Each structure stands twice: as C-alpha cells, then as structure tokens.
C-alpha cells in the first residue's frame, strides 16, 4: 500500500515575534501536521530552550518537529562617523564621480583610463577628529570591477596607515578595521582624513571603468 511521502508544514522565520506556543497554535489551526520554528522562537532567557521543552511544546500541539529555521543569526551595523564629515572626491582628471545613493551608501563611478586613482576622502578638517574611542570601524563594500580597494587613514601630522580589501565577487560584504592596529602608526586622537579608493594597480586590464560602493553612516555632503 502506498504511503504519503510528505505532510503539510509551516516554516516560522516569517512569523515575526510569535513565541513558540503561539506559532505552534497557528500552525495547528492552519491545518499543518508539522512545523519548523525559527531560532528566535526557541530562545530562552539565557541561551535556548532545552530539547525536552521544545519536544514537549510540539507534543502538546500534536505537531511533528520538522526542523529549526536559522534566521538572521548575525548582522552588521556600519559605523556612524562623528561630526558628519564631508566627502571629497578623489580623481584629478575629473573622470570619476561620487554619488550618495542613500544616507549610508556612497557610490564611486571610476574611470582609471583617465584618473590614476579614484574614490573619496572622509575629511575631518585641519584640526582632526578623535577616533581613539572607537574600538573598530565597520563598513560594507562591494564592486563590479575592482579586485582590491585601498583604505588609508592619515593624521594631522601626515602619518598614515594603509589597509587593503580584496574582493572575491560583486557581493556586498562587511569589514572591520581595528583601530588598535593603527595606533602605532597614526595619532588616533587627531585623524585628518580617511581615503577609500581604487588605483590603476588594483584593477585588472580591461576593468578600468566600473564602480564600488561603501556602506557607512554619518557622512556629510559630497564636495
């Protein structure tokens, strides 16, 4: 005799902040015989519910446990710069442009056939900005053509430190710049500017024109 190889089930990641019991009640009333709660639904005051607590909840609801849906287990909050510093265009020939797509996303359209370097500088002014209280600087970055992005922090005395970001594909990923690693090279209490750019040496031949985007908050106007 043939047997059914499936049963109606409800996946819980899209059900917001429902507690486990409420979600299981919803699943049962909807006609499901199984359910897959999200990781948030099996959280406890400290950590997660025990296996027994979860199994008992499903037994009470007369549903099968079809799995746990892992949903948004990690996320990144880009740094908001203090002082709303202006953004200055890097590109001597004027062939590259900088555009604010939103409050947090800045796009650089670069043309390294004409500009030897292209990007933007976060300008904290001649007096500098104290960034010593920031343990890390978090930002998102993506590009369609560049293979490497250069990030340079310079203090008011002209000392600088440079880091490089290597891209694997066009996906936006998030990066963390640890300020402690820069403390021996620059005065974090007087940071003059941070330059984010591509260079003729950081793109492959044939990819001289393209774009990159930086997601970071608190920036001022493009000047």
Q: How would you sum up this structure, described in words?
A:
The N and C termini lie far apart (76 Å). This protein has two domains: 57 residues, no CATH class; 129 residues, Jelly Rolls (Sandwich), CATH 2.60.120.430. Strands 4-7-12-9-10 form a five-stranded antiparallel sheet, with no helix packed on it. A five-stranded antiparallel sheet has the order 5-6-13-8-11, with no helix packed on it. A three-stranded parallel sheet has the order 1-2-3, covered by helices on one side. The longest helix is centred in the first third of the chain and has 11 residues. The model has no long low-confidence stretch (mean pLDDT 89). By secondary structure, it is mainly β. It is built from two helices and 13 strands. The protein is elongated, with a radius of gyration of 25 Å.
Number of domains: 2
Briefly note the CATH topology name of the largest domain.
Answer: Jelly Rolls
Uncertain segments are none
CATH superfamily of the largest domain: Galactose-binding lectin
Classify the beta-strand content into a percent band.
25-35%
Rough shape? elongated
Q: Report the biggest beta sheet as strand number plus sense, adding barrel if it closes.
A: 5 strands, antiparallel
Q: Report strand order across the widest sheet.
A: 4-7-12-9-10
Number of strands: 13
Quaternary structure of the protein: single chain
Run of helices and strands:
EHEHEEEEEEEEEEE
Structural class given helices, strands, pairing? Answer: mainly beta
What is the mean pLDDT? 89
